[in-house]
What we know:
Heat Shock Protein 90, alpha/beta
Amino acid sequence: MSADLQHMSMVELFRMEAESQLAALTGGLLSLEQGDTAPLEAMMRAAHSLKGAGRIVGIDAAVAVAHALEDCFVAAQRREVTLGSSQVDQLLQGVDILMRIAHSTDAELAAWEKERMPEVAAFVAALKTVLAGGSPDMPAPTPAAPAARLTADTHRVDRTEARALRVTAENLNRLLGLAGESLVESRWLRPFGASVSRLKRLHYELTGSLDQLRDRLNAGDSEGRIKESLFETQRRLALCREFLAGRLGELDTYDRRSTNLAQRLYGEALAVRMRPFADGVIGFPRMVRDLARELGKDVRLVVSGDDTQVDREVLDKLEAPLGHLLRNAVDHGVESAEVRAAAGKPPTATLTLEARHRAGVLLVAVTDDGRGADPEAIRAAVVRKKLVATETAPRLSEAELLEFLFLPGFTMKEEVTEISGRGVGLDVVQSMVKAVRGTVRVASTPGRGMKFQLQLPLTLSVVRALLVEVAAEPYAIPLGFIARTLRLPENEITSTEGRQHFGFEGRRVGLVTAHQVLGRTGAPRGDSLPVVVIGDGDRRYGVVVDRFIGERELVVQPLDPRLGKVKDVAAGTLMEDGSPVLIVDVEDLLRSVEKIAAAGRLDAVHAAAAHAPAPRKRVLVVDDSLTVRELERKLLESRGYAVDIAVDGMDGWNAVRTGAFDLVISDVDMPRLDGVELTKLIKQDPKLRSMPVMIVSYKDREEDRRRGLDAGADYYLTKGSFHDDTMLNAVRDLVGEAQEQEAT
């Protein structure tokens, strides 16, 4: 971090300091409004620090505002002035001015020093009136729209983190310590390699002894000389065995040490991605306070678990959904002070925002003590909006009724305001939660309040998933999207109007095969079918796979963005043995199932009998990128082609000379031999020249296309076309379907 600071300008440093000091001022003022005078000392120091920082960078407007705030806090400490809600309003206006100054561009800063100084002077004059005990002759501040303020805060954090990532010195020291240990461990391999070389020499000597013994036996030497050779051979064999046992013990110890070190290093690197929950909710107390005052309500926000560690990416995604939940609670849930008093409640409503870890997941709850949800009012609304039939509505349970709150466009308010009534809010919450492989639950007690609980993964860089096999290929399905796994006997499958179903939790659930959805050939085998149940409500399906492999904790590796969106695939990962696995995009998979079902093309599900597969067209994929190779392989195999791979042009040239292929698909830029030269070699070889060659390249320049076609390539394609059927259509045009159709 120190190196980053050295390259930052003084204004950038001022902005960074202002962010933390203004957060302290905001929190302190909100506590002061509740009657807690303890933060006065900290607020005075924060204002003093901002005044000094503003003076150093020459921002007179910031100096004037901070100095006025400092004087006010000092006067309050001396009990010369009492700071109530109206005074806190004025002080928060000063915080807003400093916030706008701190996040102004250089051109905007110049404006603050010229034409915008009257605004600063008016604020300073108003605070002097407060110190004199009078009422400031200045309009009360108009709170910014909560959504706009949160959005601005989010963008501001993004810009700051793009420039410098704040890492605690403790975390950095631990990372450096583990990196040092890793360096030391790596030095063990060289002497170990030397010892293995010695083992090789011992083995060579043992081989010589065995040759000598064989020669003496063949020559009919005396028993004494044969025994002498046998004894020497046994001695060398024992020496090899002892030496090998020692080296294996050392290797086992090294394996345990390096595995432990790798786990610790990964844990520390993961910890760097974590931030306290408080960092993501710093603007919510002010938002709730301003919104409540705008609505004429008295609401207090209590944040619990603010030191709970949350993945940075998860925390960033949480800001907008939590903002929606808090605004809904203040607007919809919390009653006015008069209504609360009539119901026997305290006039001040309490909103609770809580974060905690439990059983390896992050739980975030938003709770209010307001009026709760009226099930009958929701029931009437869903009938009025024609979401359910009138005769069906009475049978809906309270839990089912509450689920309607998450539908896009659904609102219980008849009038539209700046705050609510548009039906946008809870659907945003559910969309975000699903996007990060989480769940959201809602509970309501009429007259006592509501609770929304979000269950989220601790980090997005690691996913716990179920590995399944489909057409001899492993796929990973995140556990957060799986309702259940089961083995389904074939006799429990029923058919209705061409679609197959099975009973699950009292409902009929549609059944599909992963082979059809993922475009793989074959069918599941066995007496019972392995089924993964995904989705919820009417979008719940059972997906039949070949077998369950087991649960794994996988490190998520995003696909190269240049590949675009790959159908039904969210990301990739590597197994313990280094083999690649695709992580399924369950939401995309559900859309694929619905698309196939709507077209009436669902295949019948049944356990297939074993039979010899028909011959398939063979394709050689030549690419030096592991990601691209595997993606091309999976795309082609999903259409039934047999695929071999080569890691560069020379490897590809050796493969085509020794194997029989129907098509070669090659990258252009590769080490040892590029794709254009490989194409020339193939087309110049009398035995190979008839074999089609397709060049696939990131580059879409006309000269590259011309070079490839001049070399004899039969097709030139850019890799950006992976996300659609262009590549597969081109393959089919060049060599036909993967399997020859049997004559009928």
